[in-house]
UniProtKB/TrEMBL annotation:
Alphabetical keyword list: Glycoprotein, Glycosyltransferase, Golgi apparatus, Membrane, Signal-anchor, Transferase, Transmembrane, Transmembrane helix
Entry protein name: Fucosyltransferase
Residues of the Fucosyltransferase C-terminal domain: 208-380
Organism expressing this protein natively: Paralvinella palmiformis
Recorded family membership: Belongs to the glycosyltransferase 10 family.
Any matching Pfam family: Glyco_transf_10
SUPFAM superfamilies, per the entry: UDP-Glycosyltransferase/glycogen phosphorylase (SSF53756)
GO MF, one annotated term: fucosyltransferase activity
Location of the protein in the cell: Golgi apparatus membrane; Golgi apparatus, Golgi stack membrane
Principal cellular location given in the protein's record: Golgi
InterPro entries: Glyco_tran_10_C, Glyco_tran_10_N, Glyco_trans_10, GT10-like_C_sf
Domain of life: Eukaryota
Length: 400
């Protein structure tokens, strides 16, 4: 090399010497970085199935993917469809990293949406409301678990060719993930109530400031559960202000004007569009998070899942007229009204994210003795699960 020097001292003006030192420095930096990257990659391969495998032998990657560092075989979950537009069911990534990021207690699973993995997958998840669910997968081996995933009430399911489950596939499923409490994995429509560590403040409420009685926000004007008929009947006996598409006032869900309802109104109608077993939506949570009394209308056994004395259930009254007269009593009784909020001292609500059901699925797949079959999933989901005739019965008895 031209800048090789005999005496090892660098001095001003000896550029060769400085270049040599600089080059040596560069080489060392490059070596350190490459070794670091190599180990980082090894680590990723081990813990994260989603690592870009374009440059590595696919066979080995598959083995690496399915072995965690501790030697437990990763369970492979194939998402046959997305969940509406969510391709990851709340997990945000394919591979194992979604389970780790979400801090699943058991995270030795790997997520994919590659349908070619059907032959090896331990579980195959079908969201039975996705337009791309068909053709439904065919079971590849007896151990494979087919998962039925759904969060819509039965009247909104299987209603046309695209969304029906063909006869041949009705007996395919082994595990259910829905809002129904008799599912194998439950994601309650209503979130969860958690006991406070320390008593919280009960909101102070002045009824005098609330000049209006009942508020209802709605955008579906005609529903399977016929809530619109009930509320129409109710409004003959007590004032009901109707916002949204089917009403005469402008404020739809999500508008900031919603937030002010508990300044003006005493009661908030949280009516589901269908009266079906355990079916309840975020309207109830919304009401509970405000300081307003929810009037609930739906098929949930509210007594079991809501805080005591936190709501008024339409089904507890023989007719809309009786409900109205009860509401009027409460509306002028400050003490009685405030009692609806005493639960806030001891409980708070938490949302149950979709991802947490995927954590539970991962856990279940590690249970070696899990074995279940649903002989007819459509029947399980629809038979005796709705009571949408509730209102017609009142009609026939002359109570509406
Ligand atoms: C509600 O909004 C629509 C369209 O923006 C408007 O035509 C209508 O007059 C509004 N109604 C009320 C009560 O403000
Ligand atoms: C899943 O269901 C199928 C079809 O009913 C059944 O043959 C299979 O044994 C079940 N597998 C498990 C693990 O439950």
């Amino acid at each position: 090399m031209r800048w090789y020097k005999e005496d090892s001292v660098c001095y001003k003006g000896n550029y060769g010497c400085c270049r040599l030192r600089f080059n040596l420095f560069l080489v060392i930096v490059i070596i350190v970085i490459s070794v670091g990257r190599f180990y980082h990659r090894r680590r990723l391969e081990n813990i994260d199935g989603s690592y870009d495998k374009s440059q590595i032998n696919v066979e080995t990657i598959d083995v690496v993917n399915r072995e965690s560092r501790s030697g437990i075989r990763l369970k492979e979950i194939l998402l046959w469809t997305s969940f509406y537009k969510d391709r990851y069911y709340g997990l945000s990534k394919y591979g194992r990293s979604g389970f780790i990021e979400r801090k699943c207690p058991i995270n030795t699973c790997t997520l994919t949406n590659d349908r070619r993995k059907l032959t090896t997958a331990d579980a195959v998840v079908v969201h039975a409301r996705n337009p791309d669910m068909k053709p439904l997968p065919k079971r590849q081996n007896q151990k494979q678990i087919f998962v039925f995933f759904l969060h819509e009430a039965p009247p909104a399911c299987f209603w046309n060719d695209r969304y029906t489950i063909p006869d041949d596939d009705k007996s395919s499923f082994n595990l259910t993930i829905t809002y129904r409490y008799d599912s194998d994995i439950v994601r309650p429509g209503i979130g969860k109530l958690v006991k406070n560590d320390f008593p919280a403040n009960i909101p102070t409420i002045s009824l005098k400031e609330r000049t209006r009685s009942v508020v209802w926000v709605t955008s579906h004007c005609s529903t399977p559960g016929k809530r619109e008929l009930y509320i129409q009947a109710l409004s003959r006996y007590i004032d009901v202000d109707i916002y949204g598409k089917c009403g005469y006032l402008n404020c739809s869900y999500g508008d900031p004007c919603n937030k002010a309802f508990d300044k003006k109104y005493k009661f908030f109608i949280a009516a589901e569009n269908a009266v079906c077993k355990d079916y309840v939506t975020e309207k109830v949570n919304k009401a509970l998070s405000m300081n307003i009394v929810p009037i609930v209308y739906g098929g949930l056994n509210y007594k079991r899942y809501m805080p005591p004395n936190s709501y008024v259930d339409v089904m507890d009254f023989a007719s809309p007229r009786e409900l109205a007269s009860y509401l009027k009593q409460v509306a002028v009784d400050e003490w009685k009204y405030r009692e609806f909020f005493t639960w806030k001292a001891s409980y708070h609500q938490v949302n149950v994210p979709i991802a947490s059901t995927m954590c539970k699925l991962c856990e279940k797949l590690h249970n070696p003795i899990y074995h279940k079959l649903y002989p007819d999933i459509v029947q399980w989901w629809t038979e005796n699960s709705c009571n949408n005739a509730f209102i017609t019965n009142l009609f026939f008895r002359g109570l509406v």
